[in-house]
């Protein structure tokens, strides 16, 4: 089986700061690092490190060959990443001493993926494969409809959150993952809580409080792991990638969620994004 990920690819410029800047405030950065990032890239790396075959569908600019190479080094199949005229997407990330972050993203090539490239890439997918996308790329509507028609399991990570986009995609989804704030925003837009949505499995992440799975057996709580967080960037993406990898490999949902909780807890003890996502051996050995 395989996981097909229509996802963003970013250059993440990460700045350590004493606290998140307030409006109008200027701060001296305490450190600067460049990482591979983007919600899509993070999820692809996480899923690959969790042991599944990941085919990433996306785009970079002429300046983005390094990002494609890095993904390949981390075990992601990059044959469906194309080069477009737009600049590679990038993010400016502030990480405070308490681990909280603030992020600005320039979408660039992530919003310039050609439709014919998407369709050609998915011709190689097989019934029963998983497909996932996030709200950082174009072609989401076209992609989930095509994936559903092809008999793929369709997942959506509803971030950066847009209620209108999420509402449009709901009829085609088998799996929806969103955080607590996004779940509340979606309820305000639809009048439906996670248990009422027309999606087979809904997962709401709760940060340090763990997560909840809303499925056919009601609500299942996923316990958190207590760690000292130094950087929460990419933790949710790591969780999602690990969950989908587990499902693609045939794990029961609850087992996949428990493994994902360990992976994301280990992730927040490290500075960085895709480059520091733990592999499955590290997660299995982690006792936090």
UniProtKB/TrEMBL annotation:
Membrane-crossing segments per the record: none
Cofactor(s) recorded in Swiss-Prot or TrEMBL: Mg(2+)
Gene Ontology biological process terms in this record: D-ribose catabolic process
Cofactor binding remark: Requires a divalent cation, most likely magnesium in vivo, as an electrophilic catalyst to aid phosphoryl group transfer. It is the chelate of the metal and the nucleotide that is the actual substrate.
Top-level taxon of the source organism: Bacteria
GO CC, one annotated term: cytoplasm
Positions that bind substrate: 10-12, 38-42, 136, 237
Enzyme Commission code: 2.7.1.15
Catalytic reaction(s) noted: D-ribose + ATP = D-ribose 5-phosphate + ADP + H(+)
Keywords: ATP-binding, Carbohydrate metabolism, Cytoplasm, Kinase, Magnesium, Metal-binding, Nucleotide-binding, Potassium, Transferase
Function: Catalyzes the phosphorylation of ribose at O-5 in a reaction requiring ATP and magnesium. The resulting D-ribose-5-phosphate can then be used either for sythesis of nucleotides, histidine, and tryptophan, or as a component of the pentose phosphate pathway.
Family membership noted in the UniProt record: Belongs to the carbohydrate kinase PfkB family. Ribokinase subfamily.
Protein name per its UniProtKB record: Ribokinase
Lineage of the species this protein comes from: Bacteria, Pseudomonadati, Pseudomonadota, Alphaproteobacteria, Rhodobacterales
């Amino acid at each position: 089986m395989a996981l097909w990920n229509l996802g963003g690819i970013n250059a993440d410029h990460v700045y350590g700061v004493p606290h998140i800047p307030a409006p109008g405030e200027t701060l001296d950065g305490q450190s600067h690092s460049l990482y591979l990032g983007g919600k899509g890239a993070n999820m692809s790396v996480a899923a690959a490190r969790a042991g599944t075959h990941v085919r990433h569908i996306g785009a970079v600019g002429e300046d983005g060959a390094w990002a494609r190479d890095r993904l390949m080094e981390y075990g992601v199949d990059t044959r469906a990443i194309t080069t477009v005229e737009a600049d590679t997407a990038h993010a400016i990330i502030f990480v405070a001493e308490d681990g909280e972050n603030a992020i600005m993203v320039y979408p660039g090539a992530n919003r310039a993926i050609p439709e014919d490239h998407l369709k050609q890439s998915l011709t190689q997918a097989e019934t029963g494969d998983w497909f996932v996308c996030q709200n950082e790329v174009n072609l989401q509507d076209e992609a989930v409809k095509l994936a559903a028609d092809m008999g793929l399991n369709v997942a959506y990570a509803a971030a950066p959150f847009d209620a209108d986009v999420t509402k449009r995609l709901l009829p085609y989804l088998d799996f929806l993952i969103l955080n607590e704030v996004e779940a509340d925003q979606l309820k305000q837009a639809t009048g439906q809580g996670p248990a009422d949505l027309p999606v087979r499995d809904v997962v709401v992440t709760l940060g340090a409080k763990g997560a909840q799975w809303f499925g056919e057996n009601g609500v299942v709580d996923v316990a958190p792991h207590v760690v000292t967080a130094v950087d929460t960037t990419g933790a949710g993406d790591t969780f999602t990638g690990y969950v989908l990898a587990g499902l693609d490999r045939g794990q029961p949902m609850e087992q996949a969620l428990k493994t994902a909780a360990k992976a994301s807890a280990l992730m927040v003890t490290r500075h960085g994004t895709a480059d520091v996502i733990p592999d499955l051996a590290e997660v299995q050995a982690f006792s936090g």
